[in-house]
Amino acid sequence: MNIVIVESPAKAKTINKYLGKDYHVLASYGHVRDLPPKDGSVKPDEDFAMSWQVDSKSSKRLTEIANAVKDADRLILATDPDREGEAISWHVLEVLQKKRVLKDKPVERVVFNAITKKAILEAMANPRELDTPLVDAYLARRALDYLVGFTLSPVLWRKLPGARSAGRVQSVALRLICDREMEIEVFKPQEYWSILANLKTPNNEALPASVVGFDGKKITRLDITSETEATTIRTMLESASYTVDSVTSKPAKRNPAAPFTTSTLQQEASRKLGFSASRTMQVAQKLYEGISIGGETSGLITYMRTDGVQIAPEAVSAARKVIGQDFGDNYVPEKPRFYSSKAKNAQEAHEAIRPTDLFSRPKDVARFLDPDQAKLYELIWKRTMASQMESAVLERTTIEITAKGSGKTAALRTTGSVVRFDGFFALYQEGRDDEEDEASKRLPAVDQGASLALAAAGAETKPVEASQHFTTPPPRYTEASLVKKMEELGIGRPSTYASTLQTLRDRDYVELEKKQLVPQDKGRIVIAFLESFFNRYVEFDFTASLEEQLDKISAGELSWQDVLKAFWKDFSGAVDEIKDLRVSEVLDALNDLLAPHIFPDKEDGSNPRACPSCSDGQLSLKVSRFGAFIGCSNYPECNYTRQLAKNGDGEDDGAADGPKILGQDPDTGLDVSLRTGRFGPYVQLGEEAKPKRSSLPKGWSAADMDLDKALQLLSLPREVGPHPEDGKMITAGIGRYGPFVLHEGTYANLSAPEEVFSVGINRAVDALAEKRAKGGRGRAAATPLKELGEHPEEGGPVNVYDGRYGPYVKHGKINATLPKDTDPKAVTLEQAVELIAAKAAKGGTKKKTTAKKTAAKKPAAKKTAAKKTTAKKTTAKSKKTAEEPAAEDAS
Q: Which of 308, 486, 502, 745 gets the highest tally of CB atoms within 10 A of its CB?
C-alpha cells in the first residue's frame, strides 16, 4: 500500500479515485505544526532554532497518518506546489521520523498543478526529493515574521496602550494606506479652467476641440488658473475663424494581457466582480480542488497561488483551437503568445492560473457551480482565451485646428480612435481606469485647410464653453490597487496579500468603506510610531530587499541563518534603543507627525491645538488602556477630551469640537446633547456631576442622531415584562456585546439595536429559552471538564470548566483563564493552583479565614509566595501573548 499525503480532504477524496486501490490518500488539513504564540519559540542565540507545537486536532491526524505509514510500502508527499506546500510536507516528514514509523520506507515528493487525472498520474510518474532550499525559505520567512511580531508588539503595548500588534509585511501595507490618507489630508485643491469649442465641419458634422495653445504659448491642463484668463480666451474664440491645420491618422495595436497570476486575479476580480481578495482566493480554492460534474469530481482551474504568467504548451494549443471554433481563424495569431512577468521578485515557478480544460466553456459548467464560482471561472476562462487571441487594431486620429481673431491666435486639438479589428476585444477587456479610451470615438471626415464654424447655441451647449475645475487628491487604495502597488514594490508575496489585508481589518487598523481602504486612528498611530522609531523596518525598499534575500534562499544562493543573523543584529539593537523611551516622548513625536490629521488647520487661522474648553490649555495626544484620544494639557482641572479626528468618511460627526444640543427632555426639561469622548460618540442628559449617558450602538452614526433617538438610548434599560414562569422582570438594553434581553442572570442577544425598543414578551422569552438551551448563564451549575482535586493549602475542589471566553480553572469564587493553546484536559493541579494564586494576587477575592490560615503556617506561606511569583510571571507572559501578531506568510 502506498500512502499519499495531501492538504485537504476534498482533494484526498478526488485523488484517491484517480489512483486506485493500491493507494490510500490522507489529508493533513493544512499545516500540522506551528510556532507556539509565546516568547522563546525562535531562539536567535541558538542559531535560530525553532520550537514547533502540534495542536490537538493535528495530533489526531498525525497519529492516523503514522498508523497508516507503519504498514505502508511507500510514503508520497503530495501537498501543494508552493513554499507552504513544501513546508507542510517537511513538517509531516519530521513528525513521522520522530515517531520512528518510517524506518527504511522510501519517501517521495510529487507536485501537480491541477487536480485532473492526467496531471496526477504524470506527477506520480515523476517523483522528486523534498526541496530543501524551499523549506529553508519557509523557515526564514516564518522566523522573521515571528521575531518582528513578538519583538515589536510588546514595545507597542508598553508605549502605546490599546495598540494590538505589528508585523513585517502587515505594517508596510498599512503604511501605504496611511501615507495615501496623509496625501489626501494635506492636499490643496488647485483651480483650473478648460475651454472647449463646439465646431462644425463643412458637412455640418459636430467636431468639438479643446484649446491647447493661446497667443503663441502652449497651454497644458492646469495652465489656465482663473476665470479672467478663461474669459479672455473664450471671448476671442467666439469671434474667431477656424482652419484645419492637419489631420493625422496612425494605426495602433492593443495586445492582450497575460493569463492571471494570484495578484492579477485578485485585482481583476475586485474590479469586475466586486470580490475581496480573501473571497477571490476562497472561490478559486474550490475551483482548484474540484467540482462534481456528471458524477465525477475534477479540478476546473490550475493552482491559484502563482506568480508565473506562462501556460503549458498543450493549453496554448487547446486555446488556439477553441478560438478558431468560436471566433474564426482570423482571431488566431500566426504564432502562439509567450509572456514574462514584469512584477518585482516574480519566481514564475508554476503555470499561470487557467482552466484545466479550455474546451469546458463557462456556459457548459455554470449549472454545476454556485453564482460566485461561475463568475470567477468565466473570468479566468475569458482571460486565458484572450491571452492567445489576435491583437486589437485601432486607428488613432488627431486633428489640429488654428483659430484667429482680434489679432490673436489659438491652437485647438481633438483626438479620436476607431477600432478597425476588435481582436481579443471581442471576448475580453482588462478592467482599467482608461477603459473608455478603447471605445470607438469616430471623428468626422475633414480635410487639411478646411474652414470650420462655431456651432449654434443650443439648449444644453454653447459655441464656446469655459468650465471651472479643481484638482482632486489621489484616491484611497482599493484592495485591487493596493495589491497592485505591493506587487510593484516587491512587498510580500502574492499568495499572502489576502491574509495581510484581512489582518489589517481584523486588527481594526483599516476599514473598508465603499470599496476603499480607510485607515483608522488606531492604525495611523501604530504607523506613526513605527515611522518615528523603527523607520527602516517600514521602508518599502528595505522590505523589498528582504524579499529578494528570501527568494535567493529558495534558489539555494543564501543561507537562511545568515540572513536572519544580519537582520536580527540590527533589529534587536533598534528595539533596545527605545526601551527606556518615555511615553511622553513618544506622544510628542506622534503629535508632530500626525498634526495634519489630528490638529487640522482652522479656517479662521487660530491655533488648532488650543483647548476649546479652557483658556490656556493645549490639546495633545493621550493614551489609555482602551486606545488613544485627544485631551487637554490642563487635566485634571480641564477634563476636555475628544476622538482623534473626523470619522472615516471625512465628514464631521457633529460633536468633535464640543457638545451638540439635540433638544430638551420633555420629562425633566434638561438638555440632551451629543458628545464625543475617548471611546466614541455618546448622548448625555443634563450637566449634573454624574449625568446619565449612553454610547451610540454599532451601526449608528453621530451625523444621523436626533432628539428622539437620543431619548430612546437614554431610556435604557427598558422593562419588557414579567417572565411567565417566575414573574421576574425581563429587561432589554445595549451592552458591550450589543443588544440583549436579560432575565435572572441570563443574557440573550438580539439581532439589531432597534429591536431593543420594540421586543415583546414572546420574542424575549423565546430568545432566553434558546440561550439557556445552548448553555447560557442562569442554567444549572456547569459540569467540570476535569476535576483536579483539593486545593493543597486552602482546601476546596479545584476544577477545569469550559466558559464563554474559553476554558478556565476555578477554586471557590476565583476563576482563572487558561493560557492560549493550553489543552484543558492536560492541566495539572499544580498549574491550576499557580494560575489561581496569580489571579488572586491581581485582585481576586479571598476569605479572611484563608488569609489567617496561610499566615499561621510560616513555611507554607513562603511556599505559597514563591508559587505566586512564578504564577504571576507566567500569567503576565500569557496575557502579552494572548493576541499573537499575525503570521503573514500564509503561502
A: 486
435 close to 271: Cβ distance less than 8 angstroms: no
Residue whose cell numbers read 422593562:
719
Cα radius of gyration (the chain): 34
Cis ω for the linkage preceding 717 (within 30 of 0): yes
**Is 437:416 a contact under the CB 8 Å cutoff?**
no
Check if the beta carbon of residue 51 is closer than 8 Å to that of residue 35. yes
Q: Same domain, yes or no, for 459 and 480? A: no
The set of residues, in sequence order, having a beta carbon less than 8 Å from that of 859 and lying 6+ positions away, is none
Report which DSSP code applies to 668.
T
Domain that holds residue 646: 599-714
| Residue finishing a domain among 390, 411, 431 | 390
pTM: 0.67
Closest CA to 700 of 687, 712, 685, 718: 712
Q: How confident is the model at residue 878 (pLDDT cuts 50, 70, 90)?
A: very low
Indicate if 453 and 484 belong to the same structural domain: no
Would you say 28 and 88 are in contact if contact means Cβ atoms under 8 Å apart? yes
**Torsion-angle region of residue 889: left (phi > 0), alpha (psi -120 to 50) or beta?**
beta
Residues 266 and 386 in one domain: yes
- Compute the distance between CA of residue 557 and CA of residue 551 in angstroms, rounded to an integer: 9
pLDDT tens-digit profile of 154-172?
887 777 766 667 788 888 9
Which string of b and e fits 758-795 if b means at least 16 CB within 10 Å?
ebeeebbbebbeebbeeebeeeeeeebebebeebebbe
- For residues 200 and 295, membership in a common domain is answered with no
Annotated catalytic, 303? yes
Tell me the pLDDT tens digit for each residue of 251-304: 999 999 999 999 999 999 998 998 988 899 999 999 998 888 877 888 899 999
Residue 663 lies inside a defined structural domain of this protein: yes
- Between CA 509 and CA 524 the distance in angstroms is 7
Choosing from 138, 242, 303, 331, which is the catalytic residue?
A: 303
Taking alpha carbons only, the member of 567, 503, 547 closest to residue 887 is 503
Contacts of 845 (CB under 8 A, 6+ apart): 813, 814
